[in-house]
Amino acid sequence: MTTTDPRSARIPADELAADPLGSLLRVLELETLPEDDGRADGADVHFSGGSLHQPNKRIYGGQVLAQSLLAAGRTVPDGRLPHSMHGYFLRPGDLDVPVELAVERLRDGRSFSARRTHAIQHGKPILSMIASFQESQEGVEHTTTMPAAPDPETLRSAIDELGSIPVPAARSRSHESAFDLRHVEGSLYLDAGPERTDQQMVWMRARGPVDGDQLLHRALLAFACDQIMLEPVMRRVGSSWATPGISIASLDHAMWWHRDVRVDEWLLYVQSSPSAQGGRGLGATRVFAQDGTLVASIAQEGMLRLPV
């Protein structure tokens, strides 16, 4: 995908609906930009990527997280995979402008590598991220137990729930989604449900096979989780995505990968929200493979403003 022309930066809605997973994989195929001694951002390598159509006309945060992680991963020694990421969403992204990814090599040690990535548009960062990578090593090991959950095949999919609703936001979560989401307690797409709780569980799986290495699968996990990270906050206060006048934005994102993961197999997101205050809410998530293996832990704070 060539992204030097702003007109080619966005994959339009019709192409996205025709092949959601393929479209996502296309925007994650980053282009290496030529060296330019005139750049003053201190980065070592620059990449560029496009964006997926979004009904709110802003870049989806999970996309930039995934692109930033992939860019960083392309600069580390072979055999090192991301084990942690910490990022801040700084500005809204412009769908019609390519995302430039500037990667700074912070350190390469005997076992670990650290990278800083700035996702840049219009000369300013829209995301700043630091990620750490590690070689595969032996060591102490333990894991928490996955809670009991119904089989994902017995639950209603967001594709079925929203597929017949002719609203752009509904299409974004059904026809145009690269992932199949199935809420255990019922989704928050149309209403908040009968119970106010900060707990929820969601099964999620890519809508087709993903051929790619572990770096790609870990980046896709970062992409997928951003769309539900603040839902426990919403569930606790009795709001839904359809609440009139609601305003939600991700502020920061932290992620730890514990073990290899495949996003084209069912993953259970076990979620909670320990606190909300000052117009901000914290969402926490543990991600389990279907066999009960804990593969990742995630935390995100976001802005949540409700109509008075």
What would your notes on this structure say?
This protein is an alpha+beta fold and 308 residues long. The protein folds into two domains: 136 residues, Roll (Thiol Ester Dehydrase, Chain A); 156 residues, Thiol Ester Dehydrase, Chain A, CATH 3.10.129.10. It has seven helices and 14 strands. The strands form two sheets. The protein has a twelve-stranded antiparallel sheet with strand order 2-3-6-7-8-5-11-14-13-12-10-9. The protein has a two-stranded parallel sheet with strand order 1-4. A hairpin with a 2-residue loop joins strand 12 and strand 13. Helix 3 runs antiparallel to helix 6. The chain is globular, with a radius of gyration of 19 Å. One of its GO terms (molecular function) is fatty acyl-CoA hydrolase activity. InterPro entries: ACOT8-like_C (IPR049450), Acyl-CoA_hotdog (IPR042171), Acyl_CoA_thio (IPR003703), HotDog_dom_sf (IPR029069), TesB_ACOT8-like_N (IPR049449). Keywords: Hydrolase, Lipid metabolism. It catalyses: a fatty acyl-CoA + H2O = a fatty acid + CoA + H(+).
CATH architecture field of the largest domain = Roll
**Residue share in β-strands:** 35-45%
CATH class of the largest domain: Alpha Beta
Q: Total domains, how many?
A: 2
**How would you describe the shape?**
globular
CATH topology of the largest domain: Thiol Ester Dehydrase, Chain A
What is the average of the pLDDT values?
91
Structural class: alpha+beta
Going by CATH, the homologous superfamily of the largest domain would be Hotdog Thioesterase
For the CA atoms, what is the radius of gyration? Answer: 19 Å
Helix segment tally: 7
Helix amount, in percent? 10-25%
Largest sheet: 12 strands, antiparallel
